[in-house]
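Our consortium's second objective concerns turning raw sequence data into structural hypotheses that experimental partners can test. To show how far this objective has progressed, the report includes one record in full. It was chosen at random from the queue rather than selected for favorable results. The single chain below, 211 residues long, was entered without modification.
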Amino acid sequence: MDAIIFDLDNTLYPPERRLFALIDVRINRYMVDVVGIPSAEVDELRRRYWTDYGVTLQGLIRHWGVDPEDYLHYVHDVEVADCLTVDSRLRLALEQLKLRRVIFTNGSIEHARRVLGCLGLTDLFEQIYDIRIATYQPKPFSDPYHKVLKSLDIEANRCLMVEDSAVNLRTAKELGMGTILVGGGIDPPPFVDVQVASAEQVPAALAFWNL
């Protein structure tokens, strides 16, 4: 293996930190206050857009003509530092990894930088790939994965992917990557190679590949 690709939100930090919940609120507010969608319709639309397009943003682009940059700026305008602090244990764990380390997120690069800064991990990742990598097409669609692999100049079977979302790991496995699911609460599907409780357990998980 040559590289390990990490998701960001609810992967490098636990969902109990409630950061993504703040973003979720901002998405709803954007749909109501900026786009003008009646609040009673928001939940149903978001479920439909997630099913059809992977993220709310794609539905808003296709059906409401939303400017994706305006959306990304608005929904990520949250106080990251209120939720996250330096994670020295995670830093020590990630420093053990001898593979190239990158971030691959459905969020924005600006948000990713703030998160990494608050966690004290900025210097540990050589690159951040965000939802712009494939014209705002998100994981789990395959195009952004191909773009990331092309940028890294690495074959999929030389990569590991670390995610809290099993559906995003399905695409990774279909392309030939090794897969690590972060978080409990579900029985891992067959396309998950290893399941860990938190990102700091990833180094131990590499024993699955004799790394």
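The partners drew two points from this record. The domain at 19-75 is CATH 1.10.150.450 (DNA polymerase; domain 1). Residues 73 and 108 are 8 Å apart (CA to CA). Both points have been shared with the crystallography group to help prioritize constructs.
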